[in-house]
User: Fold these one by one.
Assistant:
Number 1:
Amino acid sequence: MCNDAFSNTDRTRFVNSNDPQVAPVTEPKDWQPDSWQSKPAAQQATYPDQDALGAALEHLKNLPPLVTSWEVNSLRELLADCAQGRRFLLQGGDCAETFAECRSDVISNRLKVLLQMSLVLIHGLELPVVRVGRFAGQYAKPRSADDETRDGVTLPSFRGDLVNGAEFTPEARIPDPQRLLKGHARSAMTMNFVRGLIDGGFADLHHPEYWDLAWVHHSPRASEYHSMVESVASSLKFIETLAGRQVGALKRVDFFTSHEALHLHSEQAQTRQVPRQWGWFDLSTHLPWIGMRTAAVDGAHVEFCRGIRNPIGIKLGPAMTQEWLTELLDIIDPNNEPGRIVLIHRMGADNVESGLPPLIECVQRMQRQPLWVCDPMHGNTESASSGVKTRRFGNITRELETAFDVHAGMGSRLGGVHLELTGENVTECTGGARDLTDDDLRRAYKSTVDPRLNYEQSLEMAMLIVKKKASQGRAGLG
Ligand code: PEP
Ligand code: CO
């Protein structure tokens, strides 16, 4: 999926580095892929048949990996660039993928939106964009309660397609280990299709028309987007005229994957050592992240993540403290390694101004260099008048804009965004250019978990980031 997969310099750079800025990586002490099992593991499913679970995991352990260690190492270097302001991270996709939506149209529409957004960002920020999908494995979900009660009937909560079924029946809600194998297969199908599309030229900057969604032309933002496309096309032509040839590097883009590293048995089964590479790699995804509900310093998720070479995302909510963050960074990134940590804050529009500064201050005091990313979705979930879960576009943009300001005001840098979005024409978040209302939510609400930005709202978000960065530039910030 990553085109410069073979340009890995990780071993020399981090292990034998002569660069005094880069501390050598020391082996994580007393860590094994299963050492998390001696710690309290939050948000895990209870499988009634342990033998069946063991058999499925044994099978999973021997299946080919979904990503390679070269790609993981290469992403770590790109994330280090994002932290330094040399690139910008765009991370996005579904809240939860579903097995049923492992379909070519859903996958290619999601890819189209991410490509269009990155084109807007490249054009406006004049920076290369690192694209990381929330896909090819985003099948497990944390829940606020272990059980769900409807009309007096209580059943185990739905924990994502990797674990059990969403239908509210006793059979569907029993955790089924065969789902781990189905999840791996669907992740592999998704990866295969994405890699095929990209290698086949779908992501070629010379042909952004491939990314048009059927209804783009009716969008209120269509003309703004199409004039950007024209401007990119003419810049490309200009560069190629000067170079006297097609610019090969611009034909292809990198795409990486990410998911919440929640189901630890599944992550462990896909964690491997690789010939001629140092350390252990979780080869189920390039960028696993630790969710807000599983970030306890003495918990199993932190234990698992500290030992793998993948870059690690950590979600930071309003409850995060300086002490907690200090411990997390010391445990997961004891070597202060460039590109190792992605701090994804999701404070909520009302909390970001007060909640974020202490965390930035903490990182500055520790002289750390994480990549800061804003997830303006998860702190802004609310119930619409009908009771359905929604997010208001105005709150999402307010959190993001405030986050840019808070970082710039403290001499820090917001280096990316993390969004829940889809290429489907859904109505799950209100507001945006079409000013969707609570009533519109009835029309096309498909998410089984969190509400996502639709195509137009996503594109609008990319344009807003560009405008915000431009206004900060004019004000001499950021
Ligand atoms: C998510 O990213 O879907 C999620 C559950 O996030 P958080 O852990 O930040 O609530
Ligand atoms: Co979510």
Number 2:
Amino acid sequence: MKKLLIETFGCQMNVADSEVIASILSSEYSVTADAREADVWMLNTCSIRDNAEQRIRKHLKEIAAYKQRKPSLLVGLLGCMAERIKDQLLKEEEVLDFIAGPDAYRTLPDLLKRAAEGETAYNVTLSETETYENIIPLRYAANGVSAFISIMRGCNNFCSYCVVPYTRGRERSRSPQTILAEAQQLLKDGYKEVTLLGQNVNSYLWQADGKTTTFAQLMEQVALLSPQLRVRFATSHPKDISDELLQVIARYPNVCHYIHLPVQAGSNEMLKRMNRVYTREKYLERVQKIKELIPDCAISTDIIAGFCGETEENHQETLSLMREVGFSYAYMFKYSWRDNTFAARHFTDDIPDEVKSRRLEEIIALQGELSLKSNQEDVGKTFEVLIEGTSKRSTNDLFGRNSQNKVIVFPCSTHTRGEYVRVKVKSCTAATLIGELVEEN
Ligand code: 5AD
Ligand code: SF4
């Protein structure tokens, strides 16, 4: 069998897509992590920020040098960058033998055949229906404990800074039956945790035979499969995280008490410019509701520093919102100008890079404090932890996550990956809880 190397960049959706790609090609290719034995080398790419694309372009130069020594190697670029800049790539990146956008993976066997015949083969057609729903992902890089299930694709939100609606097209959902079957299979294979994935999972909607399934209902159905199967989800848009969903999270102990709720900015002025369609007040109201219905729920977020026209006062409002919510974790970025987005067409990227950097540093420093505070509040508490493996620092320690998605490290020689244990937190850093096993009687 021929060998396939897939390098994945960007979000969890891309990780899930790479598993679909491996599955589509599995009759001809087995996956390898070793470039030396690869017949085909694929990059599943991300366009979200310019530096992501720059890194990939640089990597392509390295692959081009490598290909000089191994001319039979076929090199392909897949995913969001393929969708966004196919023409530019075809012109500038001679190393590429094939290019496939996020909705074109079923045509990969054909693209590869044509590439092998010397043609530069590409397909970046977006689809309104493709969800790859009947393809069982090949979990080639999973840890055997936790897996992603992609439940919907695309995005209709058109946040003004974001390329995703252009690279991944319109929203479409998979049928609940195929999602449940995939979760059942994972359970049978020994998995203990699934993460339901979509760019905007709250707008998951399935309608068939006069019946409608919402995300909250789907979540409930997955949760009911087994109390032994933890359920997570990402990502939620604050505009439509419903009370119904919060109630489902509160009701089922195996639905994790963790919500990733990207806020992006703390001022109404920036939120409006970003086309986030909620206000600071509405976001804080949702957070209040989460805390009321699920008191021990951890909330993480995404924040962009230095969006077009952001004043010092706007920036201060982001910091004050962060304090007010007390996020357990945050992904923080400098605004990156993306061609063709609403922001690129209508606003000026007018915040100097040093100002963006300084604001980002202030955001990162504050989040460091908030993460530490959030972890310190857990010292003395006991959590159920799903063990994911042995700690990188010490082979005497295991690590896993609690329901709140916090990593806990603890010394243990009697349990192993995939087991649930109870761990009492003894101390912490901003990044990790450090605990001790509580042996059950
Ligand atoms: N610049 C910086 N960050 C961005 N994100 C999306 N688009 C941009 C951009 N142009 C961030 C948002 C989003 C996360 C996945 O990436 O915070 O939630
Ligand atoms: Fe990157 Fe967004 Fe595409 Fe994911 S969907 S790979 S984050 S551009």
